[in-house]
Amino acid sequence: MDDKDILILFREEGKENYAFNLIVRKYSERLYWHIKKMVISHDDANDLLQNTLIKAWNALPEFREESRLFTWLYRIATNEVLTFLKKRQLRSFLSLTDYSRQLENVLESDVYFNGDKTQKALQKAILKLPEKQRIVFNMRYFDELKYEEISEILGTSVGALKASYHHAAKKIEESIQELI
Amino acid sequence: MKEKINIDQPKLKENPFSVPDRYFEKLEDEISGRISHVAPKPSWWSVLKPQLALASAFGIVLLMGYGAVTLFTPEAKKTDPIPVNQISEFNRTFNSEEGITDKSSDSLSQTKGIDPDQIVEYLNADASLVYLASLE
């Protein structure tokens, strides 16, 4: 069922829950990976995903389809992640570098990481980037979203996103050599 | 020297993470359980709609009442003021029928001079009446 049909179903009385479960089934996996790559810990990713979905449930009656459902959900998830990371960083009085190191430790101890040493080096290199650049890189590199879609999600111009991605890729290529 | 890593190689783009067993199925159940207790917050339009309907129904009833009152109440006939030329026309016709000439009808034009002695006499007579009234 496509998003339009799901939204029509959601607006029918008594069908909200069923329609929303369809949305959860369709998008929760993509949203989970988007969040997970930013916070690394499974428990944090799970909490943030649940918050994202509950916020979407509450805000869906107001959704006017000015953007696509999937970009709207991504935007909620991204805001949740950025707020979470900022809070964590402020609470632990850590600089960006120290906080990246903390995330690297989480990655080291993550039982759900099954990659090889190059993949681990790539993840660590990504963690060294500033948050916004990290989000842009992940969305383009792993999720293979178009710049126009990322622009819709983040509210940043396509030109700025392209520049941000190329800077990020360059930095990653440099630091990945040192990490292997 | 270390070999340069090409980050565009497909192997690196693969997802290196996994999830706990049946995680996404459990998540669906958990979310389903959480939303079944809470109805989605109604939109502002769905909150405002019944109130607007009530207000417009009240307005329509008020309008119909006003219409009924104005339609079925007998209205006092409005009379337009008679134009001045019609009045003078009427006077001319009336005077000619009654045989009154302009000269005889206009008493003011025929005022005679009043004797001052007559005025004094009149005032004195009036004053005495006041005096008599005060005595009573």
Care to give the gist of this entry?
The complex is a heterodimer of chains A (180) and B (136). With 180 residues, chain A is mainly alpha-helical.
Report on this structure.
- Chain A is an all-alpha fold and about 180 residues long.
- Chain A is about 80% helix and about 0% strand.
- With about 140 residues, chain B is mostly helical.
- In chain B, about 65% of the residues lie in helices and about 0% in strands.
- Chain B is built from 6 helices and no strands.
- The relative contact order of chain B is 0.03.
- The chains are: A mainly alpha (about 180), B mainly alpha (about 140).
- The interface of A and B includes residues 46 and 61 of A.
String of helices and strands of chain A: HHHHHHHHH
User: Could you say which structural class the secondary elements and strand pairing of chain B correspond to?
Assistant: mainly alpha
Range of helix content of chain A: over 70%
Secondary-structure element order of chain B, as H and E? HHHHHH
Helix content of chain B: 55-70%
Structural class of chain A: mainly alpha
Under the CATH scheme, the architecture of the largest domain in chain A is: Orthogonal Bundle
General form of chain B: rod-shaped
User: Span between N and C termini of chain B?
Assistant: 144 Å
The description of the largest β-sheet of chain A is: none
Low-confidence stretches of chain A: none
Can you tag this structure with a few keywords?
heterodimer; A: Arc Repressor Mutant, subunit A; 2 domains; 9 helices; globular; B: mainly alpha; 6 helices; 64% helix
Topology of this protein?
The complex is a heterodimer of chains A (180) and B (136).
Chain A: H1 3-11, H2 16-39, H3 42-59, H4 69-91, H5 96-109, H6 117-127, H7 131-141, H8 147-154, H9 158-179
Chain B: H1 10-13, H2 23-37, H3 44-72, H4 84-98, H5 102-105, H6 116-135
